[in-house]
Amino acid sequence: MVQYVSPPLDLSFAALSDATRRGIIDQLGRGDASVTSLADKFQMTLTGMKKHVQVLERAGLVVTQKVGRVRTCKLGKRGLKAEAEWIEAHRKLFEARFEALDEIISEMKQEGSDDSAS
Fold it and tell me: Are 10 and 16 in contact (CB under 8 A)?
């Protein structure tokens, strides 16, 4: 059986596809937090929050450290540079295509007004 290992972009985008996980990233952007405090903030069970944090950890977006009975979360050092670069490249591609479409529509409108003037 062939095992598939998800590239980092896949892991990041999958992790960020969930609103709760995006909220966790936002919260950790304000400061480190324990898993318990995150669970309280998002009104979910500790088990549910641990699962969200694990997804973010696998993607490298969050790191955790356990001291005693408290597991503290903070933003990972990897950041989102590769993801931002991927998005920017595709944004430019879409913009170019939409500009070309705008030109075609303008030409069609011009031809339509030329035909009605005749």
Answer: no
Four-way CATH pick for 8-75: 3.40.640.10, 1.10.10.10, 3.40.50.720, 3.90.190.10:
1.10.10.10
- For 43-90, write each residue's pLDDT tens digit: 999 999 999 999 999 999 999 999 999 999 999 988 888 899 989 988
Reduced DSSP (H G I as helix, E B as strand, rest coil) percent helix, strand, coil of the chain, to 5: 65, 10, 20
Beta-bridged to residue 65, according to DSSP, are 72
Count the neighbouring beta carbons within 10 Å of the beta carbon of residue 95: 10
CA distance 52 to 108: 50
CA separation, residue 74 to residues 27, 42, 109 (Å): 9, 16, 54
